[in-house]
Automatic annotation (TrEMBL):
It comes from Christiangramia aestuarii. This is Ribonuclease R. GO terms for cellular component: cytosol. It comes from the Bacteria. 3'-5' exoribonuclease that releases 5'-nucleoside monophosphates and is involved in maturation of structured RNAs. The keyword Cytoplasm applies. Its main location: cytoplasm. HAMAP family: RNase_R. Its EC number is 3.1.13.1. InterPro entries: CSD, CSD2, NA-bd_OB-fold, RNase_B_OB_dom, RNase_II/R, RNase_II/R_CS, RNase_II/RNase_R, RNase_R.
Amino acid sequence: MKKKKTNKPKIQGNLSRSIIDILRKNSGKTYNYKQIASILGVNDASSRNQIIKKLAQLAAKKQIEEVERGKFKIEDSKNYYTGVLDLTTKGYGYVMVEELADDIFIANKDLNAAFDGDTVEIYVYNRRRRKRSEGEITKIVKRKRTEFVGTLQLKKEFGFVVIDDKSMYTDFFISPNKLNKAENGDKVVVEFEEWPEKADSPFGKITRVLGTPGEHHTEIHSILAQYGLPHDFPEEVEEFANKIDTSINQEEISKRRDMRDVLTFTIDPKDAKDFDDALSFQKLENGNYEIGIHIADVSHYVQPGTILDQEAFDRATSVYLVDRVVPMLPEILSNNACSLRPKEEKFTFSAIFEIDDNANVKGQWFGRTVTYSDERFAYEEAQHIIETGTGTIPDDVSIRKHAYTVRGALVEAVVTLNRLAKKMRARRMRNGAISFDKVEVKFNLNEENNPVGVFFKTAKEANKLIEEFMLLANRKVAEFIGKQKPKKTFVYRCHDEPDDEKLASLQNIVGRFGHKLNLKDRKTTTSSLNKLLEDVQGRKEQNMVDTLAIRSMSKAYYGVENIGHYGLAFDFYTHFTSPIRRYPDVMVHRLLQHYLDGAKSAGEEEYENKCHHSSEMENLASNAERDSIKYMQVKFMQDHENEEFLGVISGVTEWGIFVEIVENKCEGMIRLRDMNDDHYEFMPEEFSVVGKRTGQSYTLGDEVYVKVKNADLVRRHLDFTLLGNREEVEAS
């Protein structure tokens, strides 16, 4: 028996969007369903009925106006805005619109196939519920990304990829011819293709198989792929870089200031391979010092318009994961030609200052140089010189694996530079700079990249010495261009004032630990923040307070409009000192030389776009670095599942308590549903959970003992079992 033929709807795509687009293109004109059907090119009964129904729905939502029975129009586009979608893990989101003070709430049903970070057009409803404007996404202007990382679940006829990103509210449907030889359970990269209107899931194709979930190689590459970060350089870029003339030739030397005879050295981490900054030091006859900050002249080798420059721009930054560096430049440049290695001549771009004994700048010079590094120190070696005032480096400090003696001129240089750096730092603090010395978590890895230990990296005087002179160069270069008239296009490192609400929230939290903030004005805010950061040193709440204080700050970014740098208390600031690993520094070198040559101002829009891209890539790299640390912490804790750990409650939410282990800074969650001794309720104002029956409370900052319940490498998540308050456990 033949099936009865039915008239299937012929409308393609999103009908709401199609109708709204027609009415908006003809703003003010009225249309009935027949006219809309005609424009859409459909004439079957089913399609016409869909249009009639959709027109009624849009009118009910007040997205369009029914001016008389059956006739509809959009008066103007005043309720339409463009912004960026920020999705939550619960499936709804907010769109941030520049013209509007508040973010617009978007329900899951109104996302209309938009993903986190997409630039979207939204319609904002006139109505307000609970004082929150709501809207619907009407168009996807630009996808932030089209590739996602997830795990393949293979069925008989097809597959689904479940996406790792917690903000992704849907899986991806994969047809058999789009599997790319991936097998069930593989971690894969899937590319978005389309999301048909009637489909429950978007359609995608697998572009890369990363491996088995939980394996080290797979998870590290998953982190890079999740943020769209590259790994290997394209073959043609490597070939181009390898053909560059990296010789220190006389023709180029003649165009530069020759500083090869001036005492010059580097201070870097002991495992560093790319040395992009060096210091030179000499006493002047008037008693002042000439101090040079010499930076690898990357812009000499990376020329605009080349595939190497395009690759460096696309990457915009090196990415530092726990077990590797993904460099911005190929190794021939990053670790060789541009690296200011000891006993080698290098082309450099320099900021040279005459400085008196009170660390005041009396003169300055900027330009291209050729330098020779006399010595390479690790921070530990320089610190030993500072602490002892001698040049005898013992074998347990030496990176040469044996004791050695540093000549007197180098010892004098290090000690003098440290004394000047301390004066510069003290002046910065008096001027309102904020001293963020957050503890960095580092791992001792074995040959298989498994973590066998955790240690904390803290900044000592040798680190701060280098930091101060890099800050000096960055500030003075920015001032040199920023103060010129007429105004010239330049790349600034900008840091806005903190948000008042975030500071008030921080004040509320630290008050629970007996600390106070004075938010009366900028000076009292910064001085009380510095006092807070100093007071928590070595205390149980230090890492939590450090983290919360940093989060209360605005995010630094690159831009052509100078607004100064709040955290450093500088009116002008840029990034000049790390061109091997940051593209903005390459742009700064090019612009500085451009203006030193007397050329006119560069194009503002071009550089603003490049700054925006660089800021975005910096954020992605930062997220990847954070995820790799979290992954390694979970991996480390897998081997300690039956051990008890003392921790501090670092966060309290409606679904659980976050605890940070004191000895290794690993953070995990105790879920409220797993706390079986009572029914616990979340008290947001108190930053605590309280047992209904016993009144037992667990509050932010409390010390508790925990045991690892589950260490999930794939989700990079730790679950803890609560053993009790410190006093109770230690007393029992």
